[in-house]
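Appendix B, Record 12. Input sequence as logged:
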Amino acid sequence: MTATEPESEPTTEPERVRLDELDGAPHAVVFEHDAPRTIRLTLDADQQLPAHRHPDTDIVCHLVEGVLDLALDDESHRLAAGDLLRFSGDREIAPTAIEDSVAVLVFAPQETD
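Logged structural output:
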């Protein structure tokens, strides 16, 4: 019987990104790997995205700049710079920028029982 060295766990280097250097509008991919999916959302004042869903995900929205009305089904949530909101992507989502706005959205798979 020979001694074996323990398997080393893969190491990943930290990734650093500047939001203002990302390409793409209104959506820009922040990190290239799949999970959790992270995007930068940039909307001009009065710009609105059509209502949509992200089934089977939990979403965290961090508003970095501006003011944003985020419709979730029949509810409206006004976010100001610095606010974070967590919600289910199963809900119908429709963001509207009140002023020029930048948000970071993180999409994580919902845990199943």
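The mean pLDDT is 88.
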